[in-house]
Write a structure and sequence with these properties.
Number of helices: 4
Shape: elongated
Strand order of the largest sheet: 1-3-2
Distance between the termini: 34 Å
Structural class: alpha+beta
């Protein structure tokens, strides 16, 4: 999701290279995010090659922001006083 927060759309191969994941591992994670409706999948052909791109949904962007806020609060709550 972090990649999709800074890029409007990203294709499968770019995600795979950026995150250094195998095809199967990435596909599994993307499928889970799609089922949660955190991303949208667009499939098309570029020339004769299939091309799949992913877009974060509004719901996915909100969930990611909420997650970051919760992590930040966890850090603040557990920071030792100096």
């Amino acid at each position: 999701m972090s990649v999709l927060m800074v890029e409007e759309r990203v294709d499968f191969n770019t995600l795979k290279e950026t995150l250094q994941l195998t095809d199967g591992n990435l596909a599994s994670h993307l499928r889970a995010l799609e089922e949660a409706q955190y991303l949208r999948v667009e499939k098309q052909f570029v020339g004769r090659k299939p091309n799949t791109t992913y877009h974060a949904t509004d719901e996915g962007r909100k969930a990611f922001t909420d997650h970051l806020d919760a992590l930040e609060q966890l850090i603040l709550d557990n920071r030792k006083d100096d």
